Amino acid sequence: MPDKVKTVVDAVRGIPDGSHIALGGFAVARNVIAVAHELIRQQKKNLTLSQCVVGMDTDLLVGAGCVSRLIIGGGSLDRFGPVHCINRAREDGTVESHDYTSLSICFRYLAGALGISFIPIKSLIASEVLDRLEHGPAAADVRRMKCPFTDEDYILMKALNPDVSLVHVQVADREGNCQIEGPRWENEEQAKSARRIIVVTEELVPTEYIQRSPERTVIPAHRVEAVIHQPFGAYPTAVFGCYDFDDAHLKLYVEHVKRPDRVKQYLDTFVLGTKNHWDYLEKAGGLKRMEEIKAERVLGY
Length: 301
Known about the structure:
Distance between the termini: 34 Å
Number of domains: 2
CATH topology of the largest domain: Glutaconate Coenzyme A-transferase
Helix content: 25-40%
Order of helices and strands: HEHEHEHEHEHEEEEHEHEEHHHH
CATH architecture of the largest domain: 3-Layer(aba) Sandwich
Strand content: 15-25%
CATH superfamily of the largest domain: Glutaconate Coenzyme A-transferase
């Protein structure tokens, strides 16, 4: 198998404007922060982002003006509050927002991963969410039907097939075999529904290490286009078994983005004002801070 390791600059350079990008992670866990920063540095535009539970990476990209459409199932910065940039953009109409439940987004990814064009579900029946979908910009992606066998009511959800899936993992080899420790959420279905998969890994290991526990390979090499090796690549969000979230930096971020006039200040300081992710980590506290948030080896937190 070929060596698929790329720099984040080269991997992002291959993502054209207007792409539909699916993001892994969940709220303030396993966000693809390193890639989100580089998408902003390269001034990618008119992106569609899909994500079951949005977090800081999506909020950053919306705040930087990179996004024109969201396909999301809610989300927040957990205990640190709402996603201010996303909420403002939805309210003022600067992004088109397709608002699902996180479960229904997961089903759409599952349909895409299975190679089918739609999937029948029941979870949205009689909900206000369905009513808003049917009367909003996502109306073309949902249908109602009667089961031909039982006459039961079903909702048909169009499959999601993103152009690119970005997933942060704990361990990968140079060929692209990936292991995700702790909660996976819908990341496996999301990745396998995409036309291209780019993974960001905390550790780059020999294939022999992967082969010791083949059942733990969540995303196999033959589906992966590129591997970005970036320790602390999800900082300041958490990666189970590697490091906790940085509460101080997340509070700093929220203090900036809750006021629209201060979003640019954060981006200029921590994204556009840094050459790469290593430079960003230095500005955010350097090795001393990274050591302070490293996970306890036994418990993983």
